[in-house]
C-alpha cells in the first residue's frame, strides 16, 4: 500500500507523492511515484509522462507523512 508524503525539496514548492515503504537511515535516494503539486496539478519541472522520480536525500529538506484514508477513519474527532 503506497504511503502519501509531502516532500519539501530545497528551493522548490513542496510536492505530493507516494512511496512504497518508509525510508531508513541507510537510504541515499527517495523514490517518489505520482508526483504532483498540493493542488493536484503537474509539477512544472517534470515532463508530462513521468510517473516515477528519484531524488537524492541531500536535496530534500524534510518529508511529511500524510495520514491515509484508513487512519482518518480510525482516529477522528467527535463532536456532540
Give a verbal description of the structure.
The protein has 80 residues and is mainly β. The chain has a single domain, classed as SH3 type barrels (Roll). Helices cover 8% and strands 39% of the residues. The chain is built from one helix and five strands; from the N terminus they run βββββα. The longest helix is centred in the C-terminal third of the chain and has 6 residues, at 69-74. The chain is globular and about 45 Å long. The mean pLDDT is 87.
Write the layout of secondary structure elements.
Elements: E1 3-9, E2 15-19, E3 29-36, E4 52-56, E5 60-65, H1 69-74
Antiparallel strand pairs: 1-2, 1-5, 2-3, 3-4
Short description:
With 80 residues, the chain is mainly β. The chain contains 1 helix and 5 strands.
Sum up the structure in keywords.
5-stranded antiparallel sheet; mainly beta; SH3 type barrels
Largest sheet: 5 strands, antiparallel
By CATH, the topology is SH3 type barrels
Neighbour order of strands in the largest sheet: 4-3-2-1-5
Report the CATH C-level class: Mainly Beta
Look at the helices and sheets and give the structural class: mainly beta
What CATH architecture do you see?
Roll
Task: Give the tally of β-strands.
Answer: 5
Task: Outline the low-pLDDT stretches.
Answer: none
Q: How many structurally independent domains? A: 1
| Rg computed from alpha carbons, rounded to a whole number of angstroms | 14 Å
The span between the termini is: 34 Å
- What percent of the residues sit in helical stretches (DSSP H or I)? under 10%
Order of helices and strands: EEEEEH
Please report the number of helical segments.
1
Strand residues, percent: 35-45%
Amino acid at each position: 500500500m503506497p504511503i502519501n508524503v509531502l516532500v519539501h525539496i530545497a528551493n522548490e514548492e513542496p510536492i505530493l507523492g507516494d512511496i512504497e515503504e518508509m525510508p531508513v537511515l541507510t537510504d541515499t535516494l527517495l523514490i517518489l511515484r505520482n508526483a504532483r503539486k498540493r493542488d493536484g496539478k503537474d509539477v512544472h519541472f517534470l515532463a508530462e509522462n513521468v510517473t516515477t522520480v528519484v531524488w537524492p536525500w541531500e536535496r530534500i529538506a524534510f518529508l511529511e507523512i500524510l495520514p491515509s484514508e484508513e487512519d482518518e477513519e480510525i482516529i477522528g474527532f467527535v463532536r456532540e
